[in-house]
Amino acid sequence: MNKDLESKIDEILERGVSEVIDKDNLKKKLLSGKKLKVKFGMDPTSPNLHIGRAVLLLKLKDFQDLGHQIILLVGNATGVIGDTSDKDSERPMLSDEVVKKNMKAYVEQAGKILNTEKIKVVYNADWLNELGYQDIGKHAECFSLHEFISRENIKKRLDEGKRVSLREVLYPLMQGYDSVKLEADVELGGNDQRFNLLAGRTLQEKFGQSPQDVLMMNIISGTDGKKMSSSWGNTINILDEPHDMFGKVMSIPDTLIKEYMLHCTRISKNEIEELMNLENPRDAKIKLAEEIVKIYHGEKAAKKAKEYFVSTFSKKKIPEDVRVVPSKAPEILIVDYMLEAGVAESKSDARRKVEQGGVSIDGKKITDTNKILDKSFSGKVIKVGKKDFVKIVFKD
Fold it and tell me: Per the CB 3.0–4.6 Å rule, which of 49, 58, 135, 323 could disulfide with 109?
């Protein structure tokens, strides 16, 4: 037996993995040398992929490196219906227009990790939109309503008296039928997708196919410690600029460092243990941030982002390439200027940042929301939070 291959397979089946069904069967197939069809679906519910989703792309890359066929499914039909597997309330239906807009850069973003020239990209509207009531009825016959409402989040919503629409019942049927059409050997997904992933096995058996094996990954936390989700604004996006990406990683709680190393990088387990034993967790976090930026932007960009962070935040220096934002008026309230400069989402957000002590000008903290900026502030640098710097300029 090829010990090197077995070691790689064990790493695939264990690192960051919550559950594998059927693990023994999948390992046997991987060791056999058979080229497997490995399916992963992404619903375009947001235009940006974040590194929480990329955990599964990294796992796909592991399969790709072993020579297996990667099938990247863009859910332009399932995305309209909406999956509530990880939600505590009903997900709204999306329009076809929103889905089309969101999915424009999905393959490009996946290409940050996968060799997209060697993957198969499919769109499930191509077959799901062709189904009629008779087809859906045959698929639905394989499942009971009790099975659906026994799911933890659905049961919780029903117990709390929250609405569960019949539309939500359709989603597992759709995802399961995707596996039938693709004749998938393996499907990857988050552990919150368990019911949907198993639906693929059930429907494949109904259609006379061998049931796919299922590999479920742990769900990683966002920068605030809650589940990473675009709707909560706690994501680190694949398309984030290197400096922003580095800074976001550095903002995560120290308790998440090991979780991120295991799931979001390919730092070896031995090195992870060594890093976790460092006296200062910040040193381990810097290594983590550098590795994550390297995956999406390359080694050179990761090095520059690290240097930027160390010089700017650790040594309290102002970056040389600080952004310049001219004021539109000869004098302006600081909260209005922050809004113009894009360092606050609204006036209330700007006031909150000032009142909480998160704003300074040339190192002097500003706490007065009625502070007026005029030409005497030209050339000075306003700092908002830990990473936003803007040079104030007033036109003559």
Answer: 49
Say if strands 323-327 and 388-394 run parallel, antiparallel, or are unpaired: parallel
Burial 70-93 (b: 16+ CB within 10 A, else e): bbbbbbbbbbbbbbbbebeeebee
* CATH 1.10.240.10 matches 242-314: yes
| Alpha-helix runs per DSSP H in 310-358 | 334-341, 347-355
CA distance from start to end of the chain: 77
Give me 257's structure tokens.
């460092």
Q: Are 373 and 365 in contact (CB under 8 A)?
A: no
Which tokens is 230 given?
A: 């675009």
Q: What is the H or E stretch that residue 216 is in?
A: strand 213-217
As annotated, the residues of the chain forming the CATH 1.10.240.10 domain(s) are 242-314
Query: Where does the chain hold its CATH 3.40.50.620 domain(s)?
Result: 3-225
Model pLDDT for residues 318-377, shown as the tens digit of each residue: 666 678 888 878 889 999 999 988 888 888 889 989 998 889 888 788 999 999 998 888
User: What does the DSSP 8-state code read for residue 59?
Assistant: H
pTM of the predicted structure, to 2 decimals: 0.77
- Report how far residue 21's alpha carbon sits from residue 214's, in angstroms, rounded to the nearest whole number: 5
**Structure token pair of residue 200:** 């693929």
Within the chain, all domains assigned CATH 3.10.290.10 are found at 323-394
Q: What is the DSSP letter of 220?
A: P
Whether 195 contacts 155, CB under 8 Å: no
Q: Please say whether the beta carbons of 311 and 305 come within 8 A.
A: no
Task: List 50's β-bridge partners, or say none.
Answer: 237
pLDDT digits (tens, 9 = 90+) for 138-184: 999 998 888 888 887 788 888 888 888 888 888 899 999 999 999 99
Name the pairing type of β-strands 120-123 and 69-74.
parallel
Cβ within 8 Å of residue 236, ≥6 positions away = 50, 51, 222, 223, 228, 245, 248, 249, 292
**What is the fold of 3-225?**
Rossmann fold (3.40.50)
Among 296, 283, 372, 254, which residue's Cα sits nearest to residue 113? 296
Tokens read off for 298: 């390359």
The correct CATH number of 323-394 out of 3.40.50.150, 3.10.290.10, 3.40.30.10, 3.60.21.10 is 3.10.290.10
